[in-house]
From TrEMBL:
Pfam families: DeoC. GO terms for molecular function: deoxyribose-phosphate aldolase activity. The keyword Lyase applies. Belongs to the DeoC/FbaB aldolase family. DeoC type 2 subfamily. One of its GO terms (cellular component) is cytoplasm. It comes from Synoicihabitans lomoniglobus. This is Deoxyribose-phosphate aldolase. It comes from the Bacteria.
Length: 312
């Protein structure tokens, strides 16, 4: 373990173990070498489509833009065999507009980033009020950012207390806890933060790699460290925590490789959008292009499909 780690972090490493970084990199490099048969590839592409959180998180978002996002999420393509996405994700102020379009019997969820996304630098009472407002307006899911400063200072109780308070504020809504892995700096820290978050989450809540607003987002490496933590926590407690890599996953080939990692680490039980998501809106169009190619033999140009509203 790092010799310079705070005492609290060193104690946690003693409890949960540290990460063999070289071993992780060697393992994830092998995922891309797996051969996927044609039939399995089509299944995988459709599965990945059902796992996308289609997102717009821009200051210029409008009700009309959110409406277009919802329509695309419900009907990604005119081929009825292509399923809808898992969720649309918007800022809290846009939740009510998404709910107006989707109603209350939609096959896709409404997710909202909250807790002063992406920095998390706001008083706790402000962050909790934002969560409650989003849920009140119809959000099914909340994506929150952890207090990275508290974690890096070894104030684990404070970090967990804040997550627990957000869990309570969510009520029935699913919570996705964003670790912002690039700011945690090491695989050991990512594993530690994963365990700290999972210990105050409920069955079916998520841990998530990134906001997509930093220079480094989801990688196969940090995804693997978090999958391993989920596996170890599940084996220890029986509580199934879900996973969401976010940011930087742009191609269907990347998505299939991430799904290989899920299958080989956690098994088929996690190959569902209730336990695995992609926070990568720009991914959707490439999944659609690949599905069209598999069906027609022709690879359509990117402009054939409307651009997703945003990515994170």
């Amino acid at each position: 373990m790092p010799l310079g780690a705070p005492v609290a972090l060193r104690r946690l490493f003693d409890e949960i173990g540290t990460v063999d970084a070289v071993g992780v990199e060697e393992r994830v490099a092998k995922y891309a070498t797996r051969s996927i048969k044609t039939g399995s590839k089509v299944v995988g592409l459709k599965l990945a489509t059902t796992m996308v959180d289609l997102t717009t998180l821009e200051g210029k978002d409008t009700p009309g833009k959110v409406r277009a996002l919802c329509v695309k999420g419900l009907h990604p393509h005119d081929d009825p065999d292509i399923p809808p996405v898992a969720a649309v994700c918007v800022y809290p102020a846009m939740v009510k507009h998404a709910r107006k379009v989707l109603g209350y019997d939609s096959p896709i969820n409404i997710a909202s980033v909250a807790t002063a996304f992406p920095s998390g630098q706001a008083p706790l009472r402000t962050r909790l009020a934002e969560v409650k407002a989003a849920v009140s307006d119809g959000a099914d899911e909340i994506d929150m950012v952890i207090n990275r400063g508290a974690f890096l200072a070894g104030e684990f109780g404070r970090m967990q207390d804040e997550i627990a308070a957000v869990v309570e504020a969510c009520g029935p809504a699913t919570l996705k806890v964003i670790l912002e892995t690039s700011e945690l700096e090491t695989y050991d820290n990512i594993r530690a933060a994963s365990f700290l978050a999972m210990r105050v989450l409920r069955e079916g809540d998520f841990i998530k790699t990134s906001t997509g607003k930093t220079s480094s987002n989801a990688t196969l490496g940090n995804n693997q460290v978090m999958l391993d933590a989920i596996r170890d926590y599940y084996l220890d407690t029986g509580t199934a925590i879900a996973m969401k890599p976010a940011g930087g996953i742009k191609s269907a080939k990347q998505a299939l490789t991430f799904l290989v990692a899920v299958k080989e680490t956690l098994g088929d039980a996690w190959l569902t959008n209730s336990r695995y998501r992609f926070g990568a809106s720009s991914l959707l169009n490439d999944l659609l292009r690949q599905l069209v190619k598999m069906k027609t033999g022709t690879y359509p140009a990117p402009y054939v499909f409307s651009e997703a509203a945003g990515t994170y």
